[in-house]
Write a structure and sequence with these properties.
The complex is a heterodimer of chains A (452) and B (324). In chain A, a hairpin with a 6-residue loop joins strand 16 and strand 17. With 452 residues, chain A is α/β, with parallel strands linked by helices. The longest helix of chain A is centred in the last third of the chain and has 29 residues. Chain A has a six-stranded mixed sheet. With 324 residues, chain B is an all-alpha fold. In chain B, helix 4 crosses helix 5 and helix 11 packs antiparallel against helix 13. The chains are: A alpha/beta (452), B mainly alpha (324).
Chain lengths: 452, 324
């Protein structure tokens, strides 16, 4: 095991609040009568429905076909019949067409699903399995994994990093996975290493999870080239760029990707999903969700079928002891607040948090006192107070000059601000405006080119 | 139908607030005030209270008048009042104290947009205006323990000695100057809050431990003053060290130059701020007409702060050279 004493610059130490679910074994969540499966669950292109109302559906059957390369198919998480295809609220804050399936309760598996062995597949076949299984980044970003594992030929990848840091407070799904299924994680990592033809891999785990470190070490002790790295417990340790900086001492260039510095970072949950797909042939139709927060009667780590509504998941935890003030999909730092419980669990839903009034406590913003705490904690070394001030005044060009586009949206600045300034929200507004402006520019240039 | 709060991430926030930070500064300033009351009598307490009350009242009245939300509960006006009082001589007349508070809050702070927007340290700016307006009152020092015997501050004595060139070597200076122990504990003439280095350093340690201030400004400030006093003043290691505890340097370095609103936010900028303050303090002390240079050096660096911030933005993660 490697013990990393160095760390990235900045970062915060929020209360981790993982005690609620840390010791809870992963349980199966009751499979609901109805599942609502969104036709877009990843960053990139949405899917086209392959089914229509009344169609008989099997468990694991592909029901959505990607409409682009940067996309992933979606599969049914139950067997039964399509009730309807309609637009529904998603936990990401948008409305999108979903396939609603009535569960017949038999879990009849699609006959095309067949077990396999890593040794029997070529690299191309493995990538194809990952693509066809609809695997996306399980840490929350939901970027299609087959794209990440297919770098262009001019990029040389020398190291694979698995992210087991789970730095978001409250969440324990990766932690439980590392303890309960370390062999799957290592198996998945070996698949990734074979695809990328890489012999060196690191698994980064924060030092507040000694039993996870122990479990992963035990599972990887006979493997060559796989090293566990003990990392400082600090948010956002699990951010891709910070992880690479700490483990490899490399910095992803501004505007670039990890592959630009010879590495690919995947979540431990993604590795386990890959192992499942290769070993059993089963596509990604369920995931581990941490249900936590002070308002939940019985906080749990649950294996949930994709498409189960938040309400059904919460019912599986005995409902709530007091009415939550805030419901969050994902972690408290980067997750998305919900206005309703009638939203489905998606591939990227790592947690469902029910916050009491005390946990969701928020103050009215007051004047920035220039205490510089946001500057101290920014892991990218931006000056959030200035970017935010420009954004609030509509000076997006100035915000761009101060590198607003490099913000990773970790929220450390907003967290630490004693004046409760809306730092991250205003920076996100600036980023959107800058992207829109760049697009306009590009279109205008294109237009001018065409005219010539 | 459940109604949930929907807001942008992050969904958890620190429990630290502006008022908690200000409360920490107030706590850190208490020891120096207590020492002063002990040395100069209870009259000092009235000056401090008067400065604080008039600062808070001014803030309240101005904000009401400007139809802005009243923010006196953030305690920043209390801090300004305290710092102003600490920068006044123990015998300051009551009306001057009030004028000072009004200048600090109304003119320097609220007119520019309130907390966070003042481009100078309000208490120091007020002190500078009072010093220019009523120099006699502002330089009437009292030897603690004696009954209102006016005397020169040790810093003035030290400068006089340096200027006449008679005593950088020690003997004459030591004859005129108080012992280091008296200087360190505060048994010397000076403003209300500046004299007791021991009490101020205790408060400064508290602020550093609580993370309210960091080392960059105060330590570079002290170090630059020390080195420049030796170079420009031609004094030895010990004399330069001794002079660090004279005048308002410690109060200025730890409590005034670190004022959030009027100091840089970038790490390098903070070092430059401390360095600039240190050089200017030594230069004013040695070459200037005033014996004390802390006030003006901090004010000068305050106005340079926006510029310093602009040119000291740190290199960001993964920065690509702009010409690439």
């Amino acid at each position: 095991m490697l013990n990393k004493r160095s760390s990235f610059t900045g970062g915060i130490h929020p209360p981790y609040s993982k005690g609620l679910t840390k010791a809870k074994q992963i349980e199966l969540c009751k499979v609901p009568e109805l599942v609502t499966i969104p036709l877009q669950q990843n960053i990139g292109a949405p899917c086209q429905s392959l089914v229509k109302k009344g169609d008989k559906i099997l468990l694991g059957q592909k029901i959505g076909q990607p409409r682009g390369y940067v996309s992933a198919p979606v599969h049914s998480s139950v067997s039964g019949a399509v009730k309807s295809i309609e637009t529904a609220d998603l936990p990401t804050g948008v409305r999108f067409p979903c396939v609603i399936i009535e569960n017949d309760g038999s879990d009849t598996l699609d006959p095309s699903i067949k077990p396999g062995k890593l040794e029997d597949f070529s690299r191309e076949e493995l990538i194809n399995i990952i693509m066809e299984s609809g695997i996306v980044g399980m840490g929350g970003a939901a970027f299609p994994t087959h794209v990440k594992l297919s770098p262009p030929s001019d990029k040389t990848i020398d190291t694979v990093i698995l992210n087991g840091s789970e730095c978001e407070p409250y969440l324990t799904s990766d932690y439980r996975l590392m303890i309960e299924k370390p062999d799957d994680i290592i198996y998945g990592l070996k698949v990734i290493m074979k695809i990328l033809d890489v012999s060196k891999a690191f698994i980064g785990i924060e030092d507040d999870k000694p039993d996870a470190i122990y479990a992963i070490e035990a599972a990887s002790k006979d493997e060559s080239g796989i090293n566990v790295v003990k990392l400082h417990t600090k948010y956002p340790q699990g951010a891709e760029k910070q992880m690479i900086q700490v483990i490899l001492g490399r910095q992803v260039p501004s505007g670039g990707l990890p592959m630009d510095v010879g590495t690919v970072v995947n979540n431990v949950g993604t590795a386990a999903a890959i192992a499942e797909a290769v070993k059993t042939g089963k596509p990604l139709y369920q995931r581990i969700v941490t249900v936590s927060g002070g308002a939940v009667r019985e906080p749990k780590n649950l294996m949930v079928r994709i498409g189960t509504s938040f309400k059904d998941v919460i019912d599986c935890c005995g409902g709530w002891i007091e009415e939550p003030v805030k419901v969050i999909a994902g972690g408290p730092m980067m997750g998305c607040a919900q206005h309703t419980l009638i939203v489905p669990v998606m591939k990227g839903t790592s947690g469902i948090l029910l916050f009491t009034e005390k946990e969701a406590y928020e103050r009215e913003p007051s004047n920035c006192i220039r205490c510089a705490r946001c500057v101290e904690v920014c892991p990218i070394r931006l000056a959030p107070l200035y970017i935010s001030a420009h954004s609030l005044k509509g000076n997006m060009e100035e915000a761009e000059k101060l590198d607003a586009m490099d913000c990773i949206e970790c929220g450390s600045c907003s967290y630490i601000c004693p004046a409760s300034r809306p730092l991250l929200p205003s920076i996100m507004v600036a980023k959107k405006a800058i992207i829109a402006d760049r697009k306009r520019q590009a279109e205008a240039d294109q237009h001018r080119q065409n005219k010539r | 139908m459940n109604l949930f709060t929907v807001s942008s991430s992050p969904h958890i926030k620190t429990r630290d607030t502006t008022s908690k930070i200000m409360l920490d500064v107030i706590i850190a300033l208490i020891p120096a005030g207590l020492v002063s009351i002990w040395l100069h009598g209870v009259g000092v307490l009235w000056i401090v209270l008067l400065a604080v009350v008039s600062a808070v009242l001014t803030e309240y009245v101005v904000q009401k008048f400007m139809k802005k939300p009243v923010t006196i509960s953030d305690l920043s006006a209390v801090v300004t009042g305290l710092l102003l009082a600490y920068n006044l001589p123990p015998g300051t007349p009551w009306w001057m104290v009030m004028v000072g508070s009004v200048i600090a809050i109304a003119l320097v702070k609220q007119v520019f947009g309130g907390i966070g927007h003042n481009f100078m340290n309000p208490a120091l700016a007020a002190r500078a205006i009072l010093l220019a307006s009523w120099p006699a009152h502002m330089t009437r020092w009292i030897q603690p323990g004696t009954d209102a015997v006016t005397s020169a501050t040790p810093l003035a004595l030290a400068n006089l000695a340096d200027a006449t060139g008679s005593a950088t070597s020690g003997a004459t200076v030591v004859m005129d100057l108080p012992s280091f122990q008296d200087v360190f504990m505060g048994n010397i003439p000076g403003t209300i809050g500046e004299v007791s280095s021991a009490a101020l350093l205790l408060g400064a340690a508290y602020l550093l431990l609580r993370g309210v201030i960091n080392w960059r400004i105060p330590i570079t400030y002290m170090a630059a003053t020390y080195v420049c006093t030796m170079i420009f003043g031609g004094v030895g290691f010990y004399d330069a060290f001794y002079q660090l505890f004279l005048g308002g340097l410690i109060l200025g370095a730890f409590f005034m130059a670190t004022d959030y609103s009027s100091s840089p936010v970038t790490p390098l900028g903070q070092v430059i701020m401390g360095f600039g303050c240190g050089i200017l303090t030594a230069v004013i002390r040695i070459y200037g007409g005033y014996p004390e240079g802390v006030t003006y050096s901090i004010l000068l660096m305050n106005v340079a702060t926006p510029l310093i911030d602009k040119y000291t933005q740190p290199k960001i993660y993964g920065e690509v050279r702009k010409d690439d």
